[in-house]
Amino acid sequence: MADLEEGFTLTAVPLGSGPDGPLGVEQSDKTDQFLVTDSGRTVILYKVSDQKPLGSWSVKQGQIITCPAVCNFQTGEYIVVHDNKVLRIWNNEDVNLDKVFKATLSAEVYRIHSIQGTEPLVLFKEGAVRGLEALLAEPQQKIETVISDEEVIKWTKFFMVFRHPVLIFITEKHGNYFAYVQKFNSRILSKYTLLLGQEEKCVIQSFSTSVGRKFISLMSLTSDGCVYETLIPIHPSEPEKNQRLVQSQLLKSVVSGSARSGAALSILDQDHVAVLGAPRPASKECLSVWNTKFQTLQTSKELPQGTSGQLWYYGENLFMLHGKFLTVIPYKCEVSSLAGALGKLKHSQDPGTHVTPHFVNWETSQGCELGSQNSEQSKRILRRRKIQVSVQPEVPASTQLLATIQKDSEKHIEVELRKFLATKRTPDFHTIIGDVVIGLLGRCKAEPSFYPRNCLMQLVQTHVLSYSLCPGLMEVALEKTDVQILQLCLQQLPDVPESVTCACLKLFLSIGDDTLQDADINMESVSDYMDPVQDGEMEEQTTFLQNGFNPEEDNCDSCAQKLKEKPQAAADESTSCPLTPKRAALLNAILCSAYSETFLLPHLKDIPAQHSTLFLQYLYFLYLKCSENATMTLPGTHPPTLNQIMDWICLLLDANFTVVVMIPEAKRLLLSLYKFVKSQISICSELNKIEVSFRELQKLNQEKNNRELYSIEVLELF
């Protein structure tokens, strides 16, 4: 169970914090005292138990504080930065910040971090980190750039892991998020790419972290109102390599994605998180506590005066802006249990009673009934038990994962799989992954309702699978009509049989547009050139002169004449793709897959004529797109090549020409292809003639060896 107690206002007057709320709330060297920094010029020290300020300091008019003030726990002094580069240090006795210690730095500061047990750290906006003492020794030292251009720091946290300081900061670039983990005992900076595992990119509104024995749990609250978790290994296998981490969904729709003032998230303990925001679009903001283990709402408190979407927690107190006042709400979280999560935990004892824990001393309890003469025997029995326990071999993580697959829920399997994938890889890693896939597929066939698609996608993305390791994977995906996994398998598995490739092609061509609309498909191969179709039919194609082919002409007799003329600018009309972008992305995966023509042709003959015609129209469209530039390539990430497009046109015509030629809808397409082939033959003929002429010129040049330094020669070609 969790409970939010009655809150109280910390500030006696409205906090001058601007529209975005205060810059921060940081703990002082006294447990009950906190530094509150507004977004203007003032830092105030509050004592929470007395609900009154103990001191206030302001910078001069015209200056502005740019990062929250913190306390140096080693000296008891306070540190703040104003105007991005000016650092000030003072103590309780100082009155005027203009007269305290000042240091002007060479780069802009993002945040100063200070925790118990280590010196404060300064994080610069370019990602570099410096200890306070080293920075004060040389304030104008050169600060290196760590993050890339246009990458912006969004959130940061400083904590201790096994008595060693660790800094984590999150950056954003073009909607993509990255996590940097700096471990100061080894001076290693690890970078991770955070993947939400969904098609539409969401804006991450808030972050929070907790530390376990092997992982740093990074939770994020996104603009779709869901809470996601990413497990970052404390000891990564390849610390200096940019690794990709997939986020898993912990809670769904905890706040409304259309909240005006944003939302915030804070981890309270191992099983509870606090969420600040509006639960529904039209409702008021509220503070709620959720149980992540059982995915239940524990308690909530409405905030009728609104909030700024900022949340801080220290000890058992939550700090937030309610209206224009900084409010403190104490909370309590009990040990997580199913009864407590469902609100059915029974409290049989009186509220004022104190329960004394009962501890058993196993070494003496054996002798309590048998007398002191049996104590030595009891100790020997206990020692033998300890030895027997210690020699039991540890169950491998892969064996534990395979056992989990057989009985646990999809959510629990996904969490355990992410933990397993984050550990160091062994030489038999690919075999273990194959066994895990086979285990999942076996349960899928035994339980039709069980289909862990997120787990299967993570396993395919390990880049160690092949079709021969898990032959049933694509078969199950075809049964489930899971085009996302099929697309991923075609891109990642190197040995997909031609029969399965053709089965995927049939599905991609026949599946309805309504089904594709909800599918999460990788659109990288079509994002830069695809125009959505309007009425389902091919419009008039663009007139091109590149490569000597003009699809608008009825004959190519003038090709030779055009070679001698100066090329004219082609009329640039708009081309239209016969497919929707998502269907085109799926077909691109087919085009880029490996195959043997001998084994593929028999299966292509089974494709319906209408689908073959549609596929030919799309291939012809791709050819015209290739013709738009001199390099004869398509834009985008990993698009089909010109050779792949031409090979598939030939394959489809070889397999289905006698059927397609009888379809009236394909007449125009076949005529266009005929004109294209005819023009290419004409172009090749003209090039052959020019080649003969150049050979003759080469012979003439070889015969003349007595050239002067300068000469004019006239050569006549007939």
TrEMBL record:
The UniProt record lists the keyword Transferase: no
One GO MF term: RNA binding
InterPro entries per the UniProt record, alphabetical: NOL11 (IPR042859), Nol11_C (IPR048897), NOL11_N (IPR012584), WD40_repeat_dom_sf (IPR036322)
Any Pfam family the entry gives: Nol11_C
Gene Ontology cellular-component annotations: nucleolus
Keywords: Activator, Nucleus, rRNA processing, Transcription, Transcription regulation
Nucleolar protein 11 N-terminal domain: residues covered: 1-332
Superkingdom to which the source organism belongs: Eukaryota
Protein name, as recorded: Nucleolar protein 11
Organism: Ovis aries
